[in-house]
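Q: What would this chain look like folded?
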Amino acid sequence: MKRVCVFAGSNMGLNPEYAKQARELGRVIAMNGFHLVYGGSKLGLMGEVANGALEQGGHVTGVMPRGLFKEEIAHRGVSDFIEVADMHERKAKMSELSDMYVALPGGYGTFEELFEVICWAQIGIHKKPIGLLNVEGYYDPLLQLIEHTVNSGFMPRVHGQYVMQGSNPKCLLEYMLDFIPEGYKSKRVPPAG
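A: My prediction, written as structure tokens:
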């Protein structure tokens, strides 16, 4: 795996740890020789993950719809910048360019991107690992909802295991590298920190 697609908020959020861990994720991606694929913005956690990768000399590809493309939003320092027609094309291009997905904290846009790739995995469109960087427990309510969905009979337990999570960027990526497509289970125990 060489290309990591990161979904992230275009805002910083209120907890400074979100930005710190976003930048660290970018650094870890680059230090492992992976390429970062993301939404192309210089703002919020999106900008932080890109800057982290760039600081380590990493290759960063930004993908942004023309309607969002403004001088003050687009990150001009990325290695490659791809303009697309709309949000649907953006998600398709990001997925095409990526071997795995990681979601940082974010809002509706991040959730929508994350759930789309989970749904694609569920119906067999891809067999790529999906991870949550669960900074300061940000995704705990979502993980509880997934468990509730399984326990309520709306999806099989194996589908509830499609999403891997960890609170440390390096440990999460290592965990995801051991990804086994059949059943989306890792050979390792989930990272503690």
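The domain at 3-186 is CATH 3.40.50.450 (Rossmann fold).
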